[in-house]
Design goal:
By secondary structure, this protein is mainly α. The chain has a domain of 32 residues. The chain is built from 2 helices and no strands. The longest helix has 15 residues. It is elongated, with a radius of gyration of 19 Å.
């Protein structure tokens, strides 16, 4: 029906949207749903400037 080895229209559009979202992502940090993920993202924002205090490295581990 579509031919073998050729991507369909929907797959091509989904790949385009996913790649666009990856290129234009605003958060360089992983997505967090824990209780303090929003607070950590807010503290690392430019308003607070954690790099000035040498605390910019945040390790995300379970």
């Amino acid at each position: 029906m579509f031919g073998r080895g050729t991507p369909t229209f929907l797959t091509t559009k989904v790949d385009f949207v996913v790649n666009w979202a990856r290129r234009n992502s605003l958060w360089p940090m992983p997505f967090g749903t824990a209780c303090c993920a929003i607070e950590m993202m807010a503290s690392a924002a430019t308003k607070n400037d954690l790099a000035r205090f040498g605390m910019e490295r945040m390790s995300f581990s379970p």
